[in-house]
C-alpha cells in the first residue's frame, strides 16, 4: 500500500482520506484550514446536485454518495446525518429534474406556498456539517490517519501519491484558473420546531431553509467571481425575506449568526491522476452530494499503476 498525503480538510478531502485508509493506505491529511474553518463547515447541507458538472458523472457520484449517507444515517446517530423529507417549489410548471433517474423518489406536491404552481417532495440526506466534519475527522484518526494544519505554497512531494482536494485553493496549488469562487451567504437562526426542508432554486439566487437539531440554515446566494467572505446585512435581509415566503415562521426566529463560504466552481469537476498527483476539486455547490462517489474514484486512481489516467471529461466525451 502507498503513503498518501491528502491536501485539504473539507468534506471532499476527509471523505477521500477515510476511503483510502479503508483500502489500507497510510494517509496524512494536511490543510491550511482545519475542518471547521472550511467552506464545507458553512454548508447547509443537503444532498442535492447543484453547480456541478458534467451531469453524467455528477449523477453517478451523487447516487453513490446518497447510498453511503443513507447507510451512515441508519448506523451512526452521532454522525450528524439524517434523511429528511422536504419540498422543492417552482413558480412555473417544471419537468422532473435531470438527476431524478436513479435518485430519490419524487412525489408531485399540491400543497404549495402562495405564488408557486409546481413542486415535488422527496426524502434526502440532510447533514449537520460541524457534527459531520468532526465525525469524519474522527474516522480518519480512528483508522490510523493524521490531520495537521499546514500552510502550503505548493503540493507536497514527500509521498507516493498526493491527493489534491483544496477546492478554490487549486487556483494556486494546481495552477488552475478555471476554478473560480461562487459566494454563498447564509443566515443561521434558532430552531423553532421546523422539521421539513424547503428549496426554491428557480430564481437568480437559491432560497433554502434547512432545519438542523438546534438551528436552521437559511440561504442563499449564487455570486460567481466574488471573493468577499464578509456577510452583507442587506443580503441577509433579502435572504430572510425570500425564505419567509416559504416558511412564515422565520419572521419571528432569532438570528444566531451569519456565514459566507466560497464554493469552488469549475466547468467540470476535476477527478484525474497526473503522475503522482490525484486531483479532486471543482465540486461547486455539491461537495457533500458528490463526496463519497468522488472518494471512491480517488481510491481507484490512487491504486492505479501504469499509464496516466485521462481527465474525466475526456473519458466521458
Distance between the termini: 32 Å
**What is the overall silhouette?**
globular
Topology-level CATH name: FAD/NAD(P)-binding domain
Number of helices: 7
Q: Report the average pLDDT across residues.
A: 94
- Residues in helix, %: 25-40%
N-to-C SSE string, H for helix and E for strand: EHEHEEEHEEHEEEEEHEEEHH
Cα Rg: 19 Å
Number of strands: 15
- Which percent range describes the beta-strand content? 25-35%
Domain module count: 1
CATH superfamily placement = FAD/NAD(P)-binding domain
What structural class is derived from the secondary structure elements? Answer: alpha/beta
Question: Descriptors for this entry?
Answer:
317 residues, alpha/beta, FAD/NAD(P)-binding domain, 9-stranded mixed beta sheet, 6-stranded mixed beta sheet, 7 helices, 28% strand, globular, disordered C terminus
Give an overview in words:
This protein is of the alpha/beta class and 317 residues long. The protein has one domain (3-315): FAD/NAD(P)-binding domain (3-Layer(bba) Sandwich). Helix content is 26%, strand content 28%. The chain has seven helices and 15 strands. Strands 3, 4, 5, 8, 9, 10, 11, 12 and 13 form a nine-stranded mixed beta sheet that branches. Helix 1 packs parallel to helix 6. The two termini are 32 Å apart.
Summarize the structure.
This protein has 317 residues and is an alpha/beta fold. The chain has helices spanning 11-22, 55-75, 129-142, 170-173, 233-244, 287-303, 312-315; strands spanning 3-7, 26-31, 81-90, 107-108, 118-127, 146-149, 161-164, 180-190, 197-200, 207-211, 215-219, 223-224, 255-265, 270-274, 277-281.
Amino acid at each position: 500500500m502507498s503513503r498518501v498525503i491528502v491536501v485539504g480538510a473539507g468534506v471532499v478531502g476527509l471523505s477521500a482520506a477515510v476511503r483510502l485508509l479503508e483500502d489500507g493506505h497510510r494517509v496524512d491529511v494536511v490543510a491550511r484550514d482545519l475542518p471547521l474553518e472550511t467552506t464545507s463547515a458553512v454548508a447547509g447541507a443537503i444532498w442535492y446536485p447543484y453547480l456541478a458538472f458534467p451531469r453524467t458523472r455528477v449523477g453517478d457520484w451523487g447516487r453513490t454518495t446518497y447510498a453511503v449517507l443513507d447507510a451512515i444515517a441508519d448506523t451512526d446517530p452521532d454522525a450528524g446525518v439524517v434523511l429528511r423529507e422536504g419540498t422543492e417549489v417552482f413558480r412555473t410548471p417544471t419537468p422532473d429534474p435531470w438527476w431524478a433517474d436513479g435518485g430519490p423518489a419524487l412525489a408531485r406536491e399540491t400543497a404549495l406556498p402562495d405564488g408557486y404552481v409546481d413542486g415535488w417532495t422527496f426524502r434526502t440526506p440532510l447533514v449537520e456539517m460541524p457534527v459531520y466534519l468532526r465525525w469524519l475527522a474522527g474516522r480518519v484518526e480512528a483508522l490510523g490517519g493524521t490531520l495537521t494544519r499546514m500552510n502550503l505554497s505548493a503540493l507536497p512531494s514527500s509521498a507516493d501519491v498526493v491527493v489534491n482536494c483544496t477546492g478554490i485553493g487549486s487556483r494556486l496549488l494546481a495552477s488552475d484558473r478555471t476554478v473560480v469562487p461562487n459566494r454563498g451567504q447564509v443566515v443561521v437562526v434558532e430552531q423553532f420546531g421546523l422539521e421539513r426542508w424547503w428549496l426554491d432554486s428557480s430564481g437568480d439566487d437559491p432560497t433554502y431553509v434547512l432545519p438542523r437539531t438546534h438551528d436552521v440554515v437559511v440561504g442563499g446566494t449564487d455570486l460567481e467571481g466574488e471573493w468577499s467572505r464578509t456577510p452583507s446585512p442587506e443580503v441577509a435581509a433579502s435572504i430572510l425575506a425570500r425564505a419567509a415566503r416559504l416558511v412564515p415562521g422565520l419572521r419571528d426566529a432569532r438570528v444566531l449568526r451569519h456565514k459566507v463560504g466560497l464554493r469552488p466552481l469549475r466547468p467540470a469537476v476535476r477527478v484525474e491522476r497526473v503522475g503522482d498527483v490525484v486531483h479532486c476539486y471543482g465540486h461547486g455547490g455539491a461537495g457533500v452530494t458528490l463526496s463519497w462517489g468522488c472518494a471512491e474514484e480517488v481510491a481507484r486512481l490512487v491504486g492505479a499503476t501504469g499509464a496516466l489516467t485521462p481527465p474525466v471529461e475526456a473519458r466521458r466525451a
